[in-house]
Every structure is written in C-alpha cells, then in structure tokens.
Amino acid sequence: MNTKQTDNIPQEAFDWYDEYAHGIIDRRTFMKKLGGLTALGFSMSVLTSALLPNYLLAEQVSFNDEGIKATYEEFNSPEGYGKGRGYLVVPKNLDEKLPVVLVVHENRGLNPYIKDVARRLAKEGFIAFAPDALFPLGGYPGNDDEGRAMQKTMDRAKIQNDFVAAAQFLKSHPNSNGNLGAVGFCFGGYIVNYLAAVDSKLINAGVPFYGTPASQNLRKNIKAPLMIQLGELDKRVNATWPEYEEDLKANNVEYTMHMYKNANHGFHNDSTGRYDKANAQLAWQRTIEFFNKKLS
Predict the structure, then answer these.
(1) Which helix (H) or strand (E) covers residue 145, if one does?
(2) Which of 116, 157, 260, 273 sits in a 20 to 30 Å window from 79, CA-based?
(3) How far apart are alpha carbons 199 and 168 in whole angstroms?
(4) DSSP for 154-200?
(5) Has residue 3 got a pLDDT over 60?
(6) Is the entire prediction scored with pTM above 0.90?
C-alpha cells in the first residue's frame, strides 16, 4: 500500500471501515460515509482502494517458495461442526520435531493474508496451521464481504470448538515437539485469548493481535504466557484492555502488552491502508522472538 495514498485520509474513514468490518454499520452506510469525503477532494477510487483489501499486496512468501510445503488437512471436531479443514505449512524436508503454531483468521474466513502469515511462520522454522471456520459452509468464498456474511450466520460456540479441535490436531502432529503457540488477528485475536482461557493446558504461548478477551468467568484458567499486540487508534478493542489486564494480574499470568503508536486496528494486515509497515514488522519480530523463547 502506498503510504502517500493514505497519509491524508481522515482517521474517521478508518474508524468507519472498522465499524463496517465488524458489522456495526452495513456496506451501504459505509460507502455513504466515504462519499461525504469527496467534498474534501478525495475520489471514491482512492478511498476504496486504500481501505478495502487487495490481497495481491499481502504475499510476502510465495506459495511456490522452495523452502516450504503447503497442504490442506482435515480434522475431526465432534463438539463443533463435526469436521474442519485448514492450511498446513511445514518447512521443506521436515525430519525433526518442531514447535507448532495455530494461525487464526479474522471474522471472514481463511483469506490469502492469513495463508501468507502461515507461510511466514514456516519460513521461520515452525509448523503452522490455519483453519478455515467457513469450511462447513464450503470455505472462504473469495471475497471478504461474502465471507463476513457467511461467518455471521454460524454458531459461535461451534466455531470456538472447531478451533479447540484444530489446536489439538496440530499439537499432535507427528513432527510437533508438543509445544503449541497461537497467533490471531481481530476475531482471531479473540480466539487466541479464548484458547488460553478455555483449557489451561491447551496452548503454551499466545499472541492475540487486537483481540477482545475471553469471557471473564474463563480468565482464571489462563496459564500460558501472552503477548498482547494493540494499535493506539483502536478505541473499540483498547476499551477492553484495562479490565483484562486486571484479571491477568490477579491470576499471576505472564504477559506483555505492546501498544503501537498511531496504529489502527488491523495494522498488521498488509492488504489494506490500515497497514503500518514499521509497526507491523516490529510486532512480527516480537512475535517470532516470543514463540522461539516459549515454544523451543
């Protein structure tokens, strides 16, 4: 994303996109609000290209990269939708036990950005698995609007159970060293917090990017160390942090919180104008270092 293209766009536009992406306003309202900015000299094409995802921008590791091998794998989920499927990426010529990392998508299914995150982890020496919550409905449909609408129709408890089953499936991988990490973004950040809270022995380290916490009655179960990644401009998610931090402290959970200056919700996602390259690279470097330390 060309930063010059987004530097002058008012913060309100990014806030509207966040509301739209999370179902607070519909697409028609979002586009109408953007239309109001044309009086300030912005064209709709510039606004939409800056705010809506372009997944061609998100490929940092090619699916043809010779250092990795990617496959789609199914897993059983008796407490969820019965069966799930995800994108498994392993380092090429895998012949040793390695730490494993579950990668959890946003509220719209397994899009190309999340697949690329899984490939990035494999390039760093992890076995990565990115489930698709939309698999019971046929899988990610190829565009975010439809994916978001599909996920909204699903049973949240069953989706959560599918991710628990996916975590168990990955942890038992033949080349797993038994140490499971989880990283997720937005809804996926919530799922990471949930996995840490629903079963104290399930994950060994969690990195939720701008995710809300699990319900308060579950938080007492958290044992895994957490690295919380938040964007300074993300008022909606940040409002949940003080109470969450109180509970983490009360339960003696090992945690670190990083607040990234002038960063929006979604700042790690390099397919939209919310992407903040410097903060995203720093957050990712910290994530890899954290997993190397906690999962080795």
Answers:
(1) helix 144-152
(2) 116
(3) 11
(4) S-HHHHHHHHHHHHHHHHT-TTEEEEEEEEEETHHHHHHHHHHHH-T
(5) no
(6) yes
Q: Which tokens is 192 given? A: 């990471």
Which residues lie closer than 8 Å to 165 by C-beta, 6 or more apart?
Answer: 75, 76, 77, 78, 79, 80, 84
Distance CA 69, CA 78 (A): 28
Cβ atoms within 10 A of the Cβ of 146, count? Answer: 14
Q: What is the DSSP string of 55-102?
A: GGGG-SS-TT-TTEEEEEEEEEETTTTEEEEEEEEEETT--S-EEEEE
- pLDDT digit string, tens, across residues 171-194: 999 999 999 999 999 999 999 999
Whether 220 and 227 have beta carbons less than 8 Å apart is answered as no
Query: What whole-number distance in Å separates Cα of residue 182 and Cα of residue 192?
Result: 6
Place of tokens 């990115």: 130
- The position carrying tokens 């950005």 is 113
Strand partners for 50: none
